[in-house]
Specification:
This protein is α/β, with parallel strands linked by helices and about 375 residues long. It has helices spanning about 5-10, 25, 55-65, 125-140, 155-160, 200-215, 235-240, 255-270, 300-310, 320-330, 335, 340-360, and strands spanning about 30-35, 40-45, 70-80, 110-115, 145, 175-180, 180-185, 220-225, 245-250, 275-280, 285, 295, 315. The chain has twelve helices and 13 strands. Helix 3 links the parallel strand 2 (about 40-45) and strand 3. The chain binds adenosine-5'-diphosphate.
Length: about 375
Amino acid sequence: MVSRDEVMAALAAVPGPDGRASLPESGAVSGVTIRDGKVFAAIAIDPARARAMEPMREKAEAAIRAIPGVTAAVVTLTAEQARGVASPGHGAQGAPPRRHGRPSEPLPGVKHIIAVASGKGGVGKSTIACNLAVGLTRLGLKVGVLDADLFGPSMPRLFGINAKPGLAPDGQKLLPIESFGVKVMSIGFLIEEGAPVVWRGPMVISALNQLLREVVWGELDALIVDMPPGTGDVQLTMAQNVPLAGAVIVSTPQDLALIDARRGIAMFGKVEVPILGVVENMSYFVCPHCGGRTDVFSHGGARREAEKLGVPFLGEAPLDIAIRANSDDGRPVVATMPESAQANAMIEIARRVADTLAAGAPGAKPAPRIRILD
Ligand code: ADP
């Protein structure tokens, strides 16, 4: 059994971020996880120096790999809150490197990459992403989920996954974890839960590329990417660096959320990613006792807004206790209550997404350019 002490001893030979103190002395190493000879670790760095830190990351990986008994090592670069960089979602410091046009490099074997995004947190973006993925499998598609919500990865919980990903026989790539027929990879598998991490431009690209390209996805019809909520630099960087077929925007009916949703649409417009459509979540409330329906938040706002903006409306999901309780238990309603009204609502959304993809819409119609008046 490889121990954490052995890992730290091996890392003592590698100079840390300042080039003087060793990695363990620098205090930059976190999230050391060891499973069956496979070692995962994170090094906290100044995000502005992410590219310059890449050789250090490689040396750390090599040092860990050289420990007898270690079969593979994965080291990622992260940044700590304490280092005083901008708060997530607000681009106060340095915009990410601007890329014009669509990213060119597709992901081999993956037909469509779809972002699920929202203008703000808490609207049920991840819940919709999870059920959309399972819904697409029910329609016969091969589906993966990449949980790129760096600020609050929730796919491990939503899919009920408590394991760490294994490594492929080549010892380099990670294997996604299959749950409810969906291949799942989450940033949450690689960073310590609750660790305060701030991600910015270059690090986001590095982490994203690892999750996208150093994972054995196999053949997929659709890879759903659960984006971080909001429309700051990190989100823009992601939208620019993933070869997206299109984006699904999740909103609640409240006006405020719709303003946020418009920001989301505008962000994808900036990087010329087509909007597949808008989903209205928590659209109406169905009483678990009497079955009566209440439009808590003036239902229908997202549909009207989508029409106004000229983007498709993909459907609505109710505000429902079973959705919340099952989601929190890692039991997506589409899989665990397959005949329910809640599951049907989600499957309708999946069907519209699948139809849009089949119709070849992605790429045909970039998101409208929307100006947000503050
Ligand atoms: P986001 O990804 O937008 O931050 P989540 O998917 O994590 O949002 O959802 C936030 C909370 O709302 C979770 O507790 C989730 O179970 C709950 N939730 C999401 N959608 C619904 C819904 N349609 N009905 C009831 N609860 C929901």
